Input
Amino acid sequence: MFSHVDNNRHPMPNPTGDEAHRRDHPEKPTPPVGPGHPEKPTPPVGPDHPSPPEKPKEPITIIVNGVDKVLPAGTIQLSYDEVVKLAYPNYSDTPNILYTVVFSNGPIENKKGTLVKGDTVRVREEMIFNVGKSNKS
Output
C-alpha cells in the first residue's frame, strides 16, 4: 500500500488551454471558442467534414424508373413522398398500397440506399431512383 499521500496541489509544468493563455497574456481575456458563440466550437471543414452543399444554380436531372425528371434550380433534397409522386403522379398515401424506394449514384453523403416514409435524401445530377408499387395482402 501507499505509505504517503500528498494532498497538496501541484501546478502542471506545461499548462494548456485557458490556463496557458492567461499565463502568457494576463492583460487579455480568453478569446471565444467559435465565431460569435463562445460555447460552440467552429465546425471543422475538410475532406472528412464537408461544408453544407450549395444550392445548384441550374435545374437538376434525376432518373426515376428509367425516366428523366427535371428538378428546379436550388433543389438539394427530396422526400420519400416527392420521389413517389415523381414515379406515380396519382400517388395517395393509402394503407393498402406499399411503395419501395431505392436510390443509387447519389452524392458522397448518401451514394445508395433506400427511403421509407418520412425520410429525405440529398440529390445530385443523374441520381437514380427506382420506385416499386405493390398491394398489401
Residues 60-135 form a domain with the Ubiquitin-like (UB roll) fold (CATH 3.10.20).
